[in-house]
Amino acid sequence: MHPFASYVLQSYYRATGWNEDNLYANLTRSSNAILDFSVPRGLHLSISKAPNGLFNTSYSMNAMPSLNGSVGYIFTSCNLDVKSSGSVRFKDMVERFKVYDQPRRPEGKEEEWLAGERSDTRDYLLYGRLYLPTGRLDALYSTRLSPTLQALVAAISDPRSSLSSEKRSRGDNVSNVMFSLQHDIGKWCSEYTYSAEDGMWGMRVLHNFGRLRNPTEPPEDLNSSPGTRPKRVDEEEATGGGLKGRVSAGAEFYISAKERSAGVSTGIRFTTLPDATPPSLQLPQSSSSPPAQSSRSPPSQPPTTITALFNPMMGHISAAYAARVSRDLSMCSRFDFNVYSYDSEWTMGAEWWMRRAASKQEDELEPSLIPPEQPSVTVSRAESLDITSDIRGVVKARISTNNNVSLMWEGRLKQMLVSLGFVSDLSSRSKPIKAIGLELSYFSAG
């Protein structure tokens, strides 16, 4: 379950038009949502309030195994549409498998002029959280320098007086400030970071192959027949089968002057087009339907994401395959291997969405996939494809060759969001249950 602060941050990115998915750090986001979900530990309570669209407060408490809490505040320059926990779209609060929209160049907000001078200011977000009784303070500042440039400053302040000499020598829980500059032009996205605590400089870059989609043009119809346009003399006949999508590749490099160390990694991702639909959602075609309507039927390929990562210095290779096999079921498999130690791990996972009676409230199309210029076309297609049931919750399961099994249920009870899960070690007879937890979250708006 996303914390309330993460939900507000995502709302801020949507309001300012920033695409956080077009980053190298999120290259494996789809597979991580199924295989690397976080199970709550102990009992966690969270209460948040958004008195208006600019200011938000959050309070959390851990009752088990130890008693501690935190207080957080968020302030933004733009008016955000923050929902309550009872009315928020449930899929927006859960990290899940998703085929993300085609990248496009970010567009800044319109200029505002008053008496011949610009009166608009650049957008920003301020966040701070104080942990009790440790006194640790987390802070985040994000601002848009230009339509394609965003700056972030993250800081951690932890009183060193409460740390032992052993932890100080390891550098655990010490104060740190990190600067990040992100430049996104759609086809390319680069990120430059600096960490003051260990003097580490880093650079990440991601390149999206293929043509970027213009926000004003309609979505591409994958099943359109070649006869609808003139055929070139040198054009070959289209062959059936295979997945149609796009490829993204990126790399990262970082070096630490203090630690005298460096690192590098590279990755590649193939993902189907965002309007791909699993076979279970295809509408049955009647024999009397005209050919023009059958050409507009949803594509037969399932939403799929394939990723591969390689770290040559550590010798680590990771490959993952994730797909939505039906409307409510997504599955993923990942294989990790180290070329130096020959250690390997195979992880499998799945997420299954639970639904109630038929309704049209919750299961609308992804907001990021609806073209702003043509909302009526996309919405009508969503209603024809999926007159859905209300989402009651989602069940996530994960198992790996190291004998670890994780199971978690996330759902909504009345006006509260609930997460319940456990982690088990099948190889341990003395302690088969490693962790179990329950998380309750409630927030209101207005």
Task: List the main descriptive attributes of the protein structure presented here.
44% strand, 19-stranded mixed β-barrel, mainly beta, single chain, 5 helices, 446 residues
Task: Describe the structure in your own words.
- It is a single chain.
- This protein is mainly beta and 446 residues long.
- It is 9% helix and 44% strand.
- It is built from five helices and 21 strands.
- It has helices at 4-16, 29-35, 165-170, 291-294, 375-385; strands at residues 42-50, 55-64, 68-76, 113-114, 117-118, 124-132, 137-146, 149-157, 176-184, 188-195, 200-208, 245-256, 261-272, 304-311, 316-324, 329-338, 344-358, 389-400, 404-413, 416-425, 433-445.
- It has a 19-stranded mixed barrel. The protein has a two-stranded antiparallel ribbon with strand order 4-5.
- Strand 2 and strand 3 form a beta hairpin.
- The longest helix is centred in the N-terminal third of the chain and has 13 residues, at 4-16.
- The chain is globular and about 75 Å long.
- The two termini are 22 Å apart.
Which spans have pLDDT < 50 for at least 5 consecutive residues? 219-228, 234-239, 275-299, 359-389
Amount of helix: under 10%
**What is the CA–CA distance across the termini?**
22 Å
Please identify the structural class as seen in this structure. Answer: mainly beta
Beta content: 35-45%
Q: Choose one word for the global shape.
A: globular
User: What would you report as the Rg, rounded to the nearest angstrom?
Assistant: 24 Å
Give the mean pLDDT: 80
Number of helices: 5
Number of extended strands: 21
Q: Specify the biggest β-sheet.
A: 19 strands, mixed, barrel
Give helix and strand order, one letter per element, not per position. HHEEEEEEEEHEEEEEHEEEEHEEEE
